[in-house]
Specification:
about 120 residues, alpha+beta, about 10% strand
């Protein structure tokens, strides 16, 4: 089954990947793996996002590619953006992470206190 068939089969319903095989290493990993947000989009929206990236974000190019107006492109982008969660690139460390770093000697006690106070 390819990604388009899987996307159509699931119809946007949540799914969990339970087995991943690295064919070049002859290795399989089992567990519960979330599917990336972009993979949860419909096949049509994935094609749209790919076209948007390939056009370097040019709405004018998107209008020509899809034969629709600027407001139509903007509305679709807004709908897709609204369905995606913002991913924090530099999330604040958790208390456990700070304490782990302290125990490994990566932080001083003062740095750990400062970081713990910063997250509340």
């Amino acid at each position: 089954m390819n990604w388009q068939e899987l996307t159509q089969f699931t119809q946007g319903q949540p799914l969990v990947i339970e087995r991943v095989r690295l064919t070049e290493k002859n290795l399989a990993i089992e567990g519960a793996f979330d599917v990336p947000q972009l993979a949860r989009l419909s096949a049509e929206d994935q094609v749209f996002v790919t076209a948007f990236i390939r056009s370097h974000g040019s709405i004018k190019d998107m209008e020509q590619t899809f034969g629709v107006s600027y407001p139509t492109i903007k509305a679709r982008l807004n709908r897709i953006a609204g369905s995606l969660e913002y991913v924090e690139m530099n999330p604040a460390p958790s208390r456990a992470e700070i304490l782990d770093r302290l125990s490994r000697g990566e932080l001083t006690a003062d740095e750990a206190i400062r970081d713990l106070e910063a997250i509340g």
